[in-house]
Fold these 4 entries.
Entry 1:
Amino acid sequence: MTNNSSLQGQVALVTGGGGGIGSAISRRLAGAGASVVITYHSDEAKARAVADDLAGENHLVVQASVTESAALAALAAQIAGRYGRLDLLVNNAGITTPVPHADMDALSDEWIDRIFQTNWRGAFATIRACKELLMAGEGGTVVNLSSVAGVTGIGSNVAYCASKAAMDSMTRSLARALAPKVRVVSVSPGWVLGEYAKRMDPAYIQQQAELTPLKRLASPEDVAETVWAVAAKLTFMTGNIVPVDGGRPLA
């Protein structure tokens, strides 16, 4: 992948930036010249290993759970103090667990609440905490990591699908509310060969690839490239849901 300086001098925050997709996004943005702030929930070593391997310099690793609004407010203050700006927020942090959709009793209230607290409320709370930084100067961009599950209703469990549909609705609402200073876009992958997929039965993953018109699943780098494009190139866009799914809804 060719690096360039299209984000030179900019600051990007990637929540959950130490994970499989988050680390690919962090690398792509750093390679484009951005200073990257990586947040993590519990695995500091993984987040720091990603940050240490990024191109460029002046990156930052911060423990800040997206479920804790006070921690997010402190994160925004830390970014303001160190950089004085925030150009791009990537809401990448998310969780799920596999539960058959028909087995409604197996999807516990605890998991429903956890999924919505992280996947939807966490993204909203991060935008809320960073709003003033994003609104400053010429304005910034928010990229929400959604999923084709929010449209198809097919995914790891019913709550996960619903949380991603809610994220896309939030993208549209906040794109309107924060315009013209802040753009808000969802990047919506199908199956991604990231950490979650690697825990699944390889035969099942191969089946999912065969069900995709382009006959493969997305790589974390496919998702990262789309995030970069939204931030750096597709700048007359807001409130959109950008698919990275290989045509999966056509199957």
Entry 2:
Amino acid sequence: MHANLGIVHFWAQADAVNRSVAVLLVVLSVVSWYVMLGKLAVYARTRRCHKRALEAFWSAANLPAAIEAIRREDRTGILASLAVTGANTAELQRENAACSIGAGVSASEAVTRSLRSQIVESQARIESGLTFLASVGSTAPFIGLFGTVWGIYHALVGLSGATQVVLDKVAGPVGEALIMTAAGLFVAIPAVLAYNAFTRANRLTLAHLDGFAHDLHAYLVTGRRGRPGDKLVELDAARGARTA
């Protein structure tokens, strides 16, 4: 009898509900692993290229050369898009401030606004997929538990007409139904661990992005790179809005 028990036997004896739950867990597992491996590759590429991109930007002779250098080195496009946005805003502010609706806005405020908007867009791009991982990590155990409860109910209903019920006839179907709970945990645990790891990596990336935005703002407005002791109030407010 024990040779007939297992996943194959459970699948053969399962009804449409249990099979649907099993297929759903398989799909969630495949998609979550796809998201995790994709984001892992992105973070590995980010760590390699961002340091080189910043060094290339600040070592350039002028702003156009710096923009070209950071575009060449930053394969993720996160730092490059921030530099391009800030430079374009500063240039437009100098050329069109007198004839636009933003004439009363200072160059510092205009650059700050554009950098803040770009940081928000970059944050949304960096955090893509994390909501899915969090959802999988929180719901997969309950999906598996539902499959277990339904499997036990289905097994007991199948035994309801028997005149004599022995332990082997109950323990086998119940044990097979518990496979669904284990499957739910197998899907959820990697998703939760990956979510926590990627959230920490995102904080580090956004901290570097904020630092570059501060230095870029100081350079575009004053012509020099910001000092470590300086504080950009507007960008600090944007950081606070992200963590709220």
Entry 3:
Amino acid sequence: MSKIPSTENIITELENGWLTIWFNRVEKRNALSKELIMDLFQILDEVHDDRSVRGIIFRGKGGTFCAGADLKVFQEIINAGDNARELATDASHLVGELFQTISTCPQITVSAVEGAAMAGGFGIACTTDLLVTMTNARYALTETRIGLTPAQIAPYLINRLGFSQARKLMLLGTSFNGQKAFEIGMADYIAQTEDAFSGFLTDIKAQVRNCAPNAVALTKDILSENHGIDTIRAAKYFSECIVHSEGKEGLTSFFEKREPYWISEN
């Protein structure tokens, strides 16, 4: 049995073969800091070869799933001068590695989304095998609206939704609720109440117990072979956006709580 750590940023619960990973940066709406990401790597590595862990659920404390990347990271990048491209590349690649690690977990993975799943949180929701959402959950993939590109998220969104639907969401920087996520096929289960939400998670656990863990792991390995992810190339695209004048303007306008110039020009 794995010795699964809990940290300041992550709370873990292991019960009846199911590991629940709680994002625990409530004051930051569970944003993805480097420390939280490294904690996730440690935990997922610990259980990777443990077939007694049948599934992993990702959730957020405080009623929010994950608000995306920590804004502190973006502030450091736009203030980094000549080092901005390198910092942006490293930050994007780290997130891409996280998505890939979650996607290739041998266990069944589930995103249990309450509150907001924004940007990187949106990405995590797309990388897991199953997605359970509350009706009033909020999803946002607004990178293009602030001069950036969802490069690391794109392959997972395409795999989950298909090219046409994913293209629309990514190009238009769309935000929507859990009901819409279910209607377009992004979410697998939708609940209007906490009891129904918990009921879906219980039902998923029961179904997974009927499946042989080694067979699940091998099947997931087969599925992973069908969609290679180039995290280095995605990081390059992201860094090119963030050091471009549009990226600088988009982030600055976001922090200053105003519209970027390309909106006021139209």
Entry 4:
Amino acid sequence: MAPTKAGLMALLAQHRALGSIPVHEHEWLVAHGEFRCAAIGEVVAPKGVLVPDAFIVFTGRMTVRHDRGAGSHKVFEFGAGDLSGHLPYSRMGGPPGDVVVEEDVEYLAIPDEFLQELTHECPACTAEMVHAMLDRARQFKISDLHDEKLTSLGKLAAGLAHELNNPASAVVRSSKLLAKSLAGAEKAAMAIGAARLTDAQWAEINRVQAFCSGHLTAEMRSPIALADREDALTDWLAAHGIDEECAAPLAETGVTTAELGALANAVPQESLDATVCWIAAGCSVRALTSEIETAASRIYDLVNSVKGFTFMDRARTPESVDVRKGVNDTFTMLASKLRQKGVEVALSFADDLPCAFAVGAELNQVWMNLIDNAIDAVAAGGHVSVSARHERERVIVDITDDGAGIPEAVVDRIFDPFFTTKDVGKGTGLGLDIVRRILQHHDGEVEVVSRPGQTRFRVSLPVAGATR
């Protein structure tokens, strides 16, 4: 049951935002407003539909939830004592999600047709509503940036985890094999030691062992050639009663059956198996340690790339930033996605390319968004190119892809918040808006030219040390 005029006046007098405004403005609101109630679960304003009224909430609670592909979550909430809906001077379109009642609400709705009159008749109320509008916009912006950062962080973490997995797995695998090879080498060494070989026999063993560090030619390293070498070595080992598992590590070295034959002539038959196994174990140990070093170096390089990409050891203040390094670090972060789609990358940087003046971590977020979008835009096996040059006092970076292009009807809207040309759940519609805002903060610019088969984003940044 709707309260009387006196009851509404009492509710307005107790309202947190409007309680202190003049009484005659309360009277104007009561005269032009409509008292409404809504129960739990009711949608007060549907997603994307322009809200026609201003809301003066007396009791209850309403929330705005939005799903950007990772599940619905709350982006805004308002309740007793708050102002919401279509407020004076607001350029808000429809809400980003349904406005749903969480607790039974009672509110006074001021229809949109009276808002212009409200600004003349109720200046104090208008001021409070404008403050509420600004607070709402600020909160939406914070929520948007938070969501976009989480999305970018998720992409970065997924790509990095994929990149780290291969070398980390190689370290684990090689470490286990290394332990096995060392155990085999120790067993064989004990057997050789018990044989009491002569100096001449040891010299022959050392001569054959030296072939383990020999480099194979490109032809010998081909998969077919390696398989043929392993087969030949396996046959020789079997013929001499030697463990055939020695063939695989020996095949990776320069050892041939001729050298092994010379060794068989120099070493007693009863010691030949232990001798060859000892040599093979040594070859295996050296190969595995090399693999571990290579994998660990890859992990080290990836960690350095992450540090460079995030500028985690730098203060977030403008400084001289190497655009070339930032772009390369970004491609490192996106390497797994590039391989998954088979995208070919072309980089071209002018020899005289100067540093840009920017906050490095924020500028890398620009490269991440633009390059990630370019990869999404191309088909499997497509092409993405990045070039950078120096024009007067600006650094110009072009990011181009050969995807289907941006439809001409929407190309002017791609930098608008929440606008996306990607499928549902694959884009937040905030990446390019953040790119635009970051570049504006850095006295930079971004523009796009698109046609089927070629879309180019051009970024312009001030040169470090240039007069601004």
